[in-house]
TrEMBL record:
PROSITE patterns: DHDPS_1 (PS00665), DHDPS_2 (PS00666)
GO biological process, one term: lysine biosynthetic process via diaminopimelate
Enzyme Commission code(s) on record: 4.3.3.7
Pfam families associated with the record: DHDPS
Pathway the protein takes part in: Amino-acid biosynthesis; L-lysine biosynthesis via DAP pathway; (S)-tetrahydrodipicolinate from L-aspartate: step 3/4
Family indicated by similarity: Belongs to the DapA family.
Record InterPro entries: Aldolase_TIM, DapA, DapA-like, Schiff_base-form_aldolases_AS, Schiff_base-form_aldolases_CS
Protein name (database record): 4-hydroxy-tetrahydrodipicolinate synthase
GO molecular function annotations of the record: 4-hydroxy-tetrahydrodipicolinate synthase activity
Taxonomic classification: Eukaryota, Viridiplantae, Streptophyta, Embryophyta, Tracheophyta
The species this protein was found in: Trapa incisa
Catalysis performed (reactions): L-aspartate 4-semialdehyde + pyruvate = (2S,4S)-4-hydroxy-2,3,4,5-tetrahydrodipicolinate + H2O + H(+)
Entry function: Catalyzes the condensation of (S)-aspartate-beta-semialdehyde [(S)-ASA] and pyruvate to 4-hydroxy-tetrahydrodipicolinate (HTPA).
């Protein structure tokens, strides 16, 4: 009990009476006061960073104005590690051809196949190499609120300009749970909420988005349920990006979308810039429609990974469970490139069909 009282006195910053080694049972007063470490009693802030300490802090409005955002592909070496040289070339081509932002580690970039260490490293690498030329939006969403908070803390700490957050998938929650989940991450910086029910199994209803729109850090919504929902939001002043390449032209020019978060812009960024910047362009949209349909014949990013390998801009390496498109679809892609024009696609090598044996499938990485 005496020890507990002494410890309590110590916490109050009062002087302690300690046994004297020369005075038997007598006590002497210490000259110096010991204080409890201040860091241990800091209230429950989001650590290790706070909003005013974020590297490369950017305004929410600068995110809201982006019209062409590419969900960038992550290329691999034959052993399954990131091919950063090829990745840097891909991002550079996006910058040169007019993309304004990249989503790092999204579905297209196979964030679902990355460890969080890989994920945050790639975000930091993108910021350090390209952050002055293009907005870097890190996919730090998760079906675990704890993981989403931690990943967002780390992503903003390494300099990402905004976060992309999906609603909890598989272990779905209630509408109130969605509000609590998004509120937990919105406090950390500019955020895009991503609604794609075909992947999550749960639609984010407008009522949740309206609630989130009251938060200053909501940059907008990546919406994949169609143009009617996009119009519903834009009519209320909420920024929306189409998440569907085959609908984005009409989303932009007929339904008020700010732009698109695009997969196909990995292949033809210059043409997608024309589609988003140049006013209504139905003939170009129609020209690209067969490529868009081909690209999503199988779940994304299977088509994109196959196409970029055929264009020679990435190695034909797949992290499982993704596998390349079959031979007949690869031949179809070669014909599509010729019809649209090789000069509009990324890279400068001739498009190839590639043999089945050219592809490397990696199961442990």
């Amino acid at each position: 009990m005496a020890t507990l009282k002494s410890y309590s006195a110590c916490l109050r910053g009062t002087a302690l009476l300690l046994p004297s080694p020369t005075s038997g049972d007598r006590y002497t007063r210490r000259n110096a006061k010991w204080r409890f470490p201040q860091a241990a009693v800091i209230p429950d802030f989001h650590l290790p960073m706070r909003s005013y300490e974020v590297k490369n802090r950017t305004s929410v409005d600068s995110i809201k104005s982006l019209r062409l955002i590419t969900a960038i592909k992550t290329p691999y070496l034959p052993d399954g590690r990131f091919d950063l040289e090829a990745y840097d070339d891909l991002v550079t081509m996006q910058i040169v051809q007019g993309a304004e932002g990249v989503i790092v580690g999204g579905t297209t970039g196979e964030g679902q196949l990355m460890s969080w260490d890989e994920h945050i490293m790639l975000i930091g690498h993108t910021v350090n190499c390209f952050g002055a030329s293009i907005k870097v939006i890190g996919n730090t969403g998760s079906n675990s609120t704890r993981e989403a908070i931690r990943a967002s803390e780390q992503g903003f700490a390494v300099g990402m300009h905004a976060a992309l957050h999906i609603n909890p998938y598989y272990g779905k929650t209630s509408m109130k749970g969605l509000v609590q989940h998004f509120n937990s991450v919105l406090s950390m910086g500019p955020t895009i909420i991503y609604n794609v029910p075909t992947r999550t199994g749960q639609d984010i209803p407008p009522e949740v988005i309206y609630s989130m729109a009251e938060n200053f850090n909501l940059a907008g919504v990546k919406e994949c349920t169609g143009n009617d929902r996009i119009k519903q939001y834009t009519s209320k002043g909420i920024v929306v990006w189409s998440g569907n390449d085959d609908e984005c032209h009409d989303s932009r020019w007929n339904y008020g979308a700010t732009g698109v978060i695009s997969v196909i812009s990995n292949l033809v960024p210059g043409l997608m810039r024309e589609l988003m910047f140049g006013g209504k362009y139905p003939s170009l949209n129609s020209k690209l429609m067969p490529l868009m349909k081909w690209l999503f014949h199988e779940p994304n990013p299977i088509g994109l990974n196959t196409a970029l390998a055929q264009l020679g801009v990435v190695r034909p390496v797949f992290r499982l469970p993704y596998v390349p498109l079959p031979l007949e679809k690869r031949i179809e892609f070669v014909n599509l490139v010729k019809e649209i024009g090789r000069e509009y696609f990324v890279g400068d090598k001739d498009v190839q069909v590639l043999a089945d044996d050219d592809f490397v499938l990696v199961s442990r990485y």
